[in-house]
Amino acid sequence: MLNRPTLTQFIIESQGHHADATGDFTGLLNDVATACKAIASAVARGALADVLGSAGSGNIQGEEQKKLDVIANTTMIAANEWRGHLAAMASEEMEHILPTHQRGRYLLVFDPLDGSSNTDINMTLGTIFSVLRTPDNGRDPVADDFFQPGTRQICAGYALYGPSTMLVLTTGQGVNGFTLDRNLGEFFLTHPDMVIPADTSEFAINMSNERFWYPPVQRYVAECRAGRTGPRGRDFNMRWIASMVAEVHRILNRGGVFMYPRDLKDPAKPGRLRLLYEANPMAFIVEQAGGMAITGEARMLDVKPTSLHQRVPVILGSTNEVQRIADYHREAPVMAA
Ligand code: AHG
Ligand code: MN
Ligand code: MN
Q1: Checking phi first, is residue 84 left (phi over 0); if not, alpha (psi -120 to 50) or beta?
Q2: Which ligand is nearest to the Cα of residue 91, counting in written order?
Q3: Which of 21, 72, 113, 297 is least buried, going by the fewest C-beta atoms within 10 A?
Q4: What is the pLDDT, as a whole number, of residue 17?
Q5: Ligand 1, residues 67, 92, 273, 282: which to mutate, most atoms within 8 A of Cβ?
Q6: How open is the CA angle 250-27-96, to the nearest 5 degrees?
Q7: In Å, how far from its chain's centre is CA 242?
Q8: Burial, 154: exposed, middle or buried (Cβ in 10 Å; 0-12, 13-18, 19+)?
Q9: What is the C-alpha radius of gyration for the chain, rounded to an integer number of angstroms?
Q10: Are strands 292-294 and 314-317 parallel, antiparallel or unpaired?
Q11: What number does the ligand 1 atom closest to the CA of 63 have?
Q12: Domain segments of the chain as ranges
């Protein structure tokens, strides 16, 4: 075990490659990792700690908040607000940005608990986060500061609360996965240089929405389902865990495609997932692992955000399949260019 670097050692060593590093960023990642350990602990105690079920409140998206959504959000704030690395935070569970007590160099945006419909059934959950630079303009932080395209992320990651707790991270130099040793309280590097296979025969989508999809995704999924006797000439398999963290983690390990596409279910919503704290961090990780992430028509990381809780269609995973879906969108555009 101790022949593997801990997350802290790994971050300090990578910081050594940046001549201008002050240790600020290392400190920030340590704080985020500490928050993830605390959330993992609450998630693992489950019913014994009375953390399951509804909090009896709703978030700005009109979604019911689970107790664990609120606990995870509070934990992430507590681990970061006084540490000096951040100027502000934004979260799925907060309508507005939360300025911190110091004007730090970074902005943190997060989905404190992803897949929270899984809380009450003891299934996989996660936390997603993304780090941006605070604009160098001397003024107090405003929401606008967060509206940077995904290409400007300097770090993105997720914690996965499954049979083991993992933290998967990119700072733009590949993707590395760490597993929590619960006895030692340390994350150890267990999955160095994660790479998504370019080819796959596995897809993930909420099939119950099929009737609301646009033709390019309908075509792609119909062809997969037709299997060996269809145009693809081979059988495909399907998975749906209802936690994007879990789907992305599977894809990082063995390939696959994950889709929450644009649909007609609710015309007010161009997609289910949120750009700043779900789609962008995952797109950064997927690209860094050699995969592709698109909205259908565009590269995810090029989308210019316009609001904190903006929703976006998401298609990501193994390059050859995502490229095929991009081609289907080009042949039958669902959006005016
Ligand atoms: P959250 O729990 O943070 O609101 O996110 C849940 C998201 C995502 O993780 C998952 O892929 C999707 O919603 C599940 O949607 P369905 O309920 O349509 O399956
Ligand atoms: Mn989520
Ligand atoms: Mn969430």
Answers
A1: left
A2: 3
A3: 21
A4: 73
A5: 273
A6: 75
A7: 13
A8: middle
A9: 19
A10: antiparallel
A11: 4
A12: 7-191, 202-331
Q: Determine the distance separating the centroid of ligand 2 and the alpha carbon of 274, expressed in angstroms.
A: 8
CATH architecture of 202-331: 3-Layer(aba) Sandwich (3.40)
pLDDT tens series, the chain, 337 aa: 789 999 999 998 887 777 677 889 999 999 999 999 999 999 999 999 999 999 999 998 888 999 999 999 999 999 999 999 999 999 999 999 999 988 999 999 999 999 999 999 999 999 999 999 999 888 999 999 999 999 999 999 999 999 999 999 999 999 999 999 999 999 999 999 999 999 999 999 999 999 999 999 999 999 999 999 999 999 999 999 999 999 999 999 999 999 999 999 998 898 999 999 999 999 999 999 999 999 999 999 999 999 999 999 999 999 999 999 999 999 988 875 4
Residue of 138, 162, 154 lying closest to 26 (CA atoms): 154
**What residue type is 99 in one-letter code?**
P
Q: Which CATH code for domain 7-191? A: 3.30.540.10
Q: Tell me the CA–centroid distance for residue 269 and ligand 2, in Å.
A: 15
* Ligand 1 nearest-atom number relative to CA 113: 3
- Residues within 6 Å of ligand 1 by CB: 63, 92, 111, 114-117, 206, 242-244, 260, 272
Query: Ligand 2 centre from 279 Cα, in Å?
Result: 9
Whole-number Å distance, alpha carbon 326 to ligand 3 midpoint, is 27
- The predicted model scores a pTM of 0.97
Q: Ligand 1: distance of its center to the CA of 195 in Å?
A: 24
Name the residue of 43, 238, 243, 258 to mutate for ligand 1: max ligand atoms within 8 A of Cβ.
Answer: 243
For the CA of 114, the closest atom of ligand 1 is 3
- Alpha helices in 255-311, H assignment, sequence order: 280-288
